[in-house]
Each structure stands twice: as structure tokens, then as C-alpha cells.
Design a protein that fits this description.
The protein is α+β, with helices and mostly antiparallel strands. It has a single domain (about 5-80), classed as Roll (SH3 type barrels), CATH 2.30.30.140. The protein has one helix and five strands; from the N terminus they run E-E-E-E-E-H. The protein has one helix at about 55-80, and strands spanning about 5-15, 15-20, 25-30, 45, 50-55. Strands 3-2-1-4-5 form a five-stranded antiparallel β-sheet, covered by helices on one side. The longest helix is centred in the last third of the chain and has 25 residues, at about 55-80. It is elongated, with a radius of gyration of 14 Å.
């Protein structure tokens, strides 16, 4: 299963950008978005260090809500096993 994480572009410099999500910062490649380079403040989906798609802030929030639900369910399942 592939998973892309929503991150906000903090600074863009040609074919790379410094992005952050929930206090974690990463340098992300923008090679796949050369046709539509993101600006500071834009949200992108990041998979394996590559920005693969620009998304709205609303979509990014929905994805984070789903990820939070999955993490909570996993934590609950682990607590039952222990």
C-alpha cells in the first residue's frame, strides 16, 4: 500500500522545497510538479520524498483526520492485545 502525507510548503527553491507537517520538516523533491510548481503555503502530498500532487488545505485536513483515526484504531487494537 502506498501512502502520501500532506505537507505544507514552507520555502521553494527550484526543484526542491522545505515542507513541514505536524512539526516535522523535510526537504522534498518537486521534480514531479514541474508543470505546476507549488508556492510557499501550498499543500502537497509527499510520497518517498517526492511531492506528487498539490492539494487544497481542506483535502489535507481530511487526510490528516483519516490518518488520526487509523492511528487511534491501531493504538486501541494494540492495547487490547497487550
Amino acid at each position: 500500500m502506498c501512502l502520501a502525507i500532506p505537507m505544507q510548503v514552507m520555502h521553494s527553491d527550484g526543484l526542491s522545497a522545505r515542507c513541514q507537517a505536524r512539526g516535522v520538516e523535510r526537504v522534498v523533491s518537486l521534480v514531479l510538479l514541474q508543470h505546476e510548481p507549488p508556492d510557499a503555503g501550498d499543500m502537497v502530498l509527499v510520497h518517498l520524498g517526492q511531492a506528487v500532487q498539490k492539494v487544497s488545505h481542506e483535502h489535507a485536513a481530511e487526510v490528516w483526520a483519516l490518518l488520526d483515526e487509523m492511528l487511534a484504531a491501531d493504538a486501541q487494537a494494540r492495547a487490547v492485545v497487550e
